[in-house]
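User: Hi! I have a protein structure encoded as tokens and I'd like to know what sequence might fold into it. I'm fairly new to this, so please keep things simple.
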């Protein structure tokens, strides 16, 4: 991938101005030289405002008490944010109410009754030196959207609780029907809701999900309070909502839960689980695992507790009782804005969720603190007359932890308006659990994100861009188990993660509304996720002592928003987007070598299912695999055309920008046109089986893992060739539509 728009611009600068003096300050994607100069000034004023002291003060307010979705404290914090935003100078600040199907714990108990007796604690013991962990408002063990019930049954160890794990149990003669399955959180990672659905489908009576020390505890390193990893008693709460089917309120799939809205009965809600579920610390899981009996578990099922794990089945028996209080309750989204001075009807939307499982030290209050300092700085600039050209809308979401609910309902409520006005959405969930930057972006915005990181500095003094490169090269080296990689070998186009799954509030904006999205976060060793130990103490000792990364996040988030808000022409790079889509198609073909074809020879090669290249089709002809074929040659051609149109437009826009003067009417036509590209990736029918998810390039697996070309990929994986062909045609026609759009825009520029 290349930054085709940037290269000619740089060249023109060398001719027109003194490069040494102005290059660093005046080259910004999407800006004329004069507006880039002004933008640099605005950004440097903006970056000077957030301070570590203020970040810490905000963080303390949000982490002072548990504030789960629907709680009194979380609703008070909504009012706090509203009042702060008004004082900071934000406009039209309102609290929006959604009456959603919420979830609350009443009581839970777990007892092993055979072969020995053990009563599970189901709570997290206080840690010396961290007074917050003594707070009586800390909840016990619970999982959002578990059903209520009571059961006495044998326990089976089902490893990670994925479908293949149950296959292995079956091979060992173990049926989980009517039994209680004990699974661990990761290894490999999958969303707990998918574990719950899999257990439900297998006919299990209940699921227990525990944190094995091999994943986030002492096997990783020192545990809290001596290190960042999870201690013996830490419990990972979380929701098990089947939001991979449809996120948001289970009773209003596809429309907003405003008071009085139509609701479906809970029995018809596909995203509402129908199984009892409870999380455990390893302290409580250990006695069960030790007494499990049955065949020895395979090597990769063994965990970090220092004894042999067994599959169970008959020996260990437990009595489990869960009482939930699930039902309709209000969630509150706080919304505010800085009205644009010139283009108030073009919106840059920013958001962070407010609700936390307990204190939410990292998740989400590090993000909330960063947001409050960012909005303070935006408000201060506006007061000084430095108002963004476009409107910046900021939202504090509720109930993200329970099925992405607040952002989904808000997005559904304003979908039509957002499709007209929204330029992009920038999400910050966990702002800081360590110093390693991770940036996500739809590929059209990846180059501008990379460029933005060049203008920010990490605490050591080097640029965020350099630090990002080092992080990516280190992670690549770790992934390849070698130290061959150096940061100089990392290309700019491999920095941003352009494969976007689900699991946070960007979902409705990308997958339902068709907005380009960005996601920003600093990460590090973090073993206390969704536990009571994820708190103020943890951030001050491990996550971000000194709050420098919180401050950097406020700066980065705001500068990224300001660039989109102030650009003369949007910094979208559609040539990069095309190259990225080609990678997606190539990866799909590679993973299905015997069934996907990408070359023109496909018609001769009916033995194979998906077609990509000439070389491979020879091998396939020899293998005589009788599966039907899927030929993606025309899709690849459509991608090539889209890329060419993107390159042409990049070049034309660069020239226009470098020339320094753009007729406002032309700029408006170009920008409006570019905003349409992402919308054109939506299929109104959605992906097969999941109509809410409308984006044809981005989706998520049930595990939350990213899933590119979701409709096409799932059809290929199921070997449903009729659907696969249909999905390929939908992709091809979207590519053609966007190619025409870019070509028309290019004609406008050259006129
Ligand atoms: Zn979160």
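Assistant: Happy to help. Inverse folding works backwards from shape to sequence: for each of the 751 positions I chose a residue that suits the local structure. Here it is:
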């Amino acid at each position: 991938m290349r930054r085709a728009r940037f290269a000619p611009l740089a060249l023109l600068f060398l001719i027109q101005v003194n490069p040494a003096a102005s290059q660093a300050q005046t080259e910004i994607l999407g800006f004329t030289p004069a507006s880039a100069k002004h933008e640099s000034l605005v950004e440097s004023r903006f970056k000077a405002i957030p301070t570590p002291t203020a970040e810490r003060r905000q963080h303390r307010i949000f982490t002072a008490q548990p504030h789960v979705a629907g709680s009194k404290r979380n609703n008070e914090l909504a009012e706090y944010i509203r009042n702060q935003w008004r004082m900071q100078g934000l406009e039209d600040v309102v609290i929006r109410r959604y009456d959603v199907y919420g979830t609350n714990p009443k009581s839970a108990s777990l007892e092993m009754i055979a072969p020995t007796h053990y009563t599970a604690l189901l709570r997290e013991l206080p840690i010396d030196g961290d007074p917050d962990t003594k707070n009586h408002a800390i909840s016990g063990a619970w999982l959002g959207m578990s059903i209520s019930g009571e059961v006495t049954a044998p326990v089976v160890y089902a490893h990670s609780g994925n479908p293949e794990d149950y296959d292995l149990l079956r091979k060992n003669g173990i049926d989980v029907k009517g039994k209680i399955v004990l699974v661990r959180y990761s290894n490999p990672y999958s969303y707990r809701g998918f574990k719950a659905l899999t257990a439900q489908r297998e006919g299990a009576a209940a699921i227990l999900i525990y944190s094995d020390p091999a994943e986030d505890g002492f096997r990783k390193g020192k545990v809290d309070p001596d290190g960042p990893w999870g201690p013996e008693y830490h419990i990972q709460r979380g929701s098990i909502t089947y939001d991979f089917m449809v996120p948001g309120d289970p009773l209003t799939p596809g429309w907003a839960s405003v008071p009085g809205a139509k609701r479906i009965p809970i029995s018809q809600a596909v995203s509402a689980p129908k199984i009892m579920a409870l999380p455990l610390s390893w302290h409580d899981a250990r006695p069960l695992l030790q007494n499990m009996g049955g065949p020895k578990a395979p090597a990769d099922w063994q965990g970090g507790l220092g004894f042999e794990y067994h599959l169970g089945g008959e020996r260990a028996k437990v009595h489990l009782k869960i009482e939930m209080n699930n039902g309709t309750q209000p969630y509150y989204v706080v919304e505010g804005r800085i009205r644009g001075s010139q283009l108030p009807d073009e919106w840059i939307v920013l958001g962070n969720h407010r609700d936390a499982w307990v204190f939410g030290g990292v998740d989400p209050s590090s993000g909330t603190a960063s947001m409050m300092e960012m909005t303070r700085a935006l408000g201060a600039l506006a007061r000084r007359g430095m108002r963004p050209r476009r409107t910046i809308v900021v939202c504090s979401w509720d109930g993200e932890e329970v099925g992405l609910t607040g952002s989904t309902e808000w997005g559904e409520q304003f979908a039509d308006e957002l499709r007209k006005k929204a330029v992009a959405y920038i999400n910050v969930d966990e702002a800081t659990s360590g110093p390693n930057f991770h940036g996500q972006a739809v590929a059209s915005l990846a180059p501008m994100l990379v460029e933005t990181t060049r203008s920010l500095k990490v605490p050591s003094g080097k640029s965020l861009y350099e630090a990002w490169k080092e992080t990516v090269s280190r992670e690549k080296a770790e992934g390849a188990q070698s130290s061959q990689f150096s940061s100089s070998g990392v290309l700019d186009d491999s920095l941003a993660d352009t494969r976007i799954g689900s699991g946070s509030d960007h979902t409705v904006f990308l997958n339902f509304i068709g907005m380009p999205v960005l996601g920003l976060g600093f990460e590090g060793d973090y073993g206390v996720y969704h536990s009571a130990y994820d708190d103020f103490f943890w951030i001050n000792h491990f996550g971000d002592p000194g709050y420098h990364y919180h401050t950097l996040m406020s700066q980065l988030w705001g500068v990224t928003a300001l660039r989109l808000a102030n650009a003369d022409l949007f910094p979208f790079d559609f040539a990069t987007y095309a190259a990225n889509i080609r990678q997606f198609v190539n990866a799909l073909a590679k993973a299905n070598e015997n069934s996907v074809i990408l070359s023109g020879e496909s018609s001769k090669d009916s033995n194979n299912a998906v077609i990509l290249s000439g070389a491979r089709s020879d091998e396939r002809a020899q293998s005589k695999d009788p599966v039907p074929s899927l030929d993606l040659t025309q899709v690849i051609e459509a991608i090539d055309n889209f890329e060419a149109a993107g390159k042409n437009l990049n070049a034309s826009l660069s020239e226009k920008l470098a020339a320094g003067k753009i007729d406002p009417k032309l700029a408006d036509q170009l920008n409006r046109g570019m905003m349409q590209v992402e919308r054109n990736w939506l299929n109104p029918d959605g992906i097969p089986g999941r109509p809410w998810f409308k984006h044809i390039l981005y989706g998520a697996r049930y595990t939350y893992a990213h899933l590119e070309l979701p409709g096409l990929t799932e059809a290929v994986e199921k070997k449903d060739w009729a659907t696969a062909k249909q999905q390929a045609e939908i992709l091809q026609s979207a590519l053609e539509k966007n190619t025409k759009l870019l070509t028309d825009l290019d004609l406008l520029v050259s006129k």
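A useful reference point when you look it over: Confidence is low (pLDDT under 50) at residues 1-25, 601-608, 613-624. Feel free to ask if any position seems puzzling.
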